[in-house]
Amino acid sequence: MMASLPTGGAIRLVYLLLSNGSPSTRSISRVGPRAPETSAVDFLLCERLNGRRPTPIRDLFTMAVKLNALISDSYIDISQYRDQHFRGYRYEQEKLLKQSHTLYVGNLSFYTTEEQVHEMFSKSGDVKRIIIGLDKVKKTACGFCFVEYYTRADAEHAMRFVNGTRLDDRIIRTDWDAGFKEGRQYGRGKSGGQVRDEYRQDYDPARGGYGFSL
């Protein structure tokens, strides 16, 4: 007979995972005995206190996966993009991205001002500084910026609520940045602006017209 659980109504999931992701029977003696014919994944490690029969662990594992999907916050996940110009080891870059207070903001109009960026992003928290991206030749805005917050929490709010919204009549995108370094404010394209604008084939009046390589 299993020991009753301390709270009413809720399911308490008690299991260990092996390295391959399957439930383990280690330390199950602390929960209750197991019949010889019962497999590890069928072993009942928890019970409902509302009178219903215990739930097999394989069903609980499925429930846990579904619940995790429901509560996961994909808006603040780190994307697959990595700055190839990062100076350091990959693990250092990953660590910085997970701790960063800085966001990269792309698809801005060349005419969007720092004041407009601040007005939008300050709604998510206290902004420490904004660095507008510049054409390295003309020293004029070229459609991106960095927004640095004082805290990670405020940066996460911006990732949730600002990414994909409209600023200056354009849908902007945000991504985590490992941290601004002097020199990164300049475009990396051959013409001085962003690489994406050199190969763009459509006409975009807010980003200099046609692609510069045409």
If you average the pLDDT, what whole number results?
72
Approximate helicity band: 10-25%
The name of the CATH superfamily of the largest domain reads RRM (RNA recognition motif) domain
Q: Which blocks of ≥5 consecutive residues have pLDDT under 50?
A: 1-49
In total, the number of strands is 8
CATH class of the largest domain: Alpha Beta
Based on secondary structure, the structural category is alpha+beta
Largest sheet: 4 strands, antiparallel
Question: What is the multimeric organization of the chains shown?
Answer: single chain
Number of domains: 2
Please give the order of strands in the largest beta sheet.
Answer: 4-5-3-8
Radius of gyration: 26 Å
**Net shape:** globular
How much strand?
Answer: 15-25%
N/C terminus separation: 77 Å
CATH topology-level name of the largest domain: Alpha-Beta Plaits
The CATH architecture name of the largest domain reads: 2-Layer Sandwich
Main location: nucleus
GO cellular component, one term: nuclear cap binding complex
Keywords: mRNA processing, mRNA splicing, mRNA transport, Nonsense-mediated mRNA decay, Nucleus, RNA-binding, RNA-mediated gene silencing, Translation regulation, Transport
Pfam families: RRM_1
